[in-house]
Amino acid sequence: MPSEIAFFTFAGLTLISAIAAMTMRNLVYCGLCSAAAFAGIAAIYLQLSAEFVGFAQFLVYVGAIAILIVFTVLLTRGTDIKPTVAIVSRGWIAGVVIAGLVFASISVPVFMSATLWRTAPPEVAAPVEMIGLELMTRYILPLEAIGLLLTVALIGAVVIAMREKPAESIEPEVTDLEENSTPAPRFDVSSLEVKS
Q1: Do 15 and 24 form a contact (C-beta atoms < 8 A)?
Q2: pLDDT tens digits for 67-81?
Q3: What does pTM read for this prediction?
Q4: Is 50 exposed, middle or buried (0-12, 13-18, 19+ CB in 10 A)?
Q5: What does CATH list as the number for 1-81?
Q6: How far is 41 from 17, CA to CA, in rounded Å?
Q7: For residue 65, how many other CB atoms are within 10 A of its CB?
Q8: How far apart are CA 113 and CA 107, in angstroms?
Q9: How many whole angstroms separate alpha carbon 42 and alpha carbon 63?
Q10: Helices vs. strands in the chain: H and E counts, helices first
């Protein structure tokens, strides 16, 4: 019974965070809500005794991708949304119908499958310590290559985001003193006579 309460708690957190990520108008809040949804999924994995998948979900999705989304939004100054833009598109009814058809086309074969009534196979022991030992001994070169590739991609994203726009015609700013002051009289030099 406590495991069911925990499951429904994490599932509710995940669903609420995912819905909030889709409906909020501020992109920073959307990124943070998606991080909360990823954390809820990782908690469900951990509750199902899949430690490696749960920790990988925390590290990769919550720790990297969600934070990268927030930094990308902040670097590209994409937090401003016009108030006249609607949250829901005009074709939301068609989207709901298509989502229902896709859900039905997936769920009906699953519930009619004979594999649903089979007994569960015995649990496979794959502790996190054994996976970490394999990653740090046998697969160290691919792990380092992936880390280097992700670092280069992150630096490239920052360089692209920080690129300055070309300077447009810059008009001098007019101060309040210049607006309120009367123009100084001008003398026409050509009309002056020179006495010899």
Answers
A1: no
A2: 778 777 777 765 555
A3: 0.56
A4: middle
A5: 1.20.120.1200
A6: 11
A7: 14
A8: 10
A9: 12
A10: 8, 0
The residue extents of the domains of the chain are 1-81, 125-164
Give tens-digit pLDDT for 25-79: 777 888 889 889 999 999 999 988 888 888 888 888 888 887 778 777 777 765 5
The residues, any chain, with a CB within 8 Å of residue 18's CB and separated by 6 or more, are 33, 34, 37
In terms of residues, how long is the chain? 196
- CA–CA dist 17, 61 (Å, integer): 14
Rounded to 5 degrees, φ, ψ at 115 are: -70, -15
Rounded Cα distance, 62 and 68, in Å: 9
| pLDDT tens digits, 108-158 | 988 888 877 778 777 766 677 888 888 889 999 998 999 999 899 888 878
Contact 24, 33 (CB under 8 A): yes
- Position 70 scores a pLDDT of 75
Instruction: Evaluate if residue 180 carries a pLDDT over 60.
Output: no
**pLDDT tops 80 at residue 5:** yes
Q: Which two tokens stand for residue 67?
A: 């934070």
Give the count of beta carbons closer than 10 Å to the beta carbon of residue 16. Answer: 14
Q: Give the position of tokens 């490239």.
A: 156
Average pLDDT in the 155-170 region?
A: 71
**Which residue bears the tokens 């119908």?**
97
Sign of the alpha-carbon dihedral angle for 153, 67, 11, 105 = negative
Distance CA 67, CA 34 (A): 10
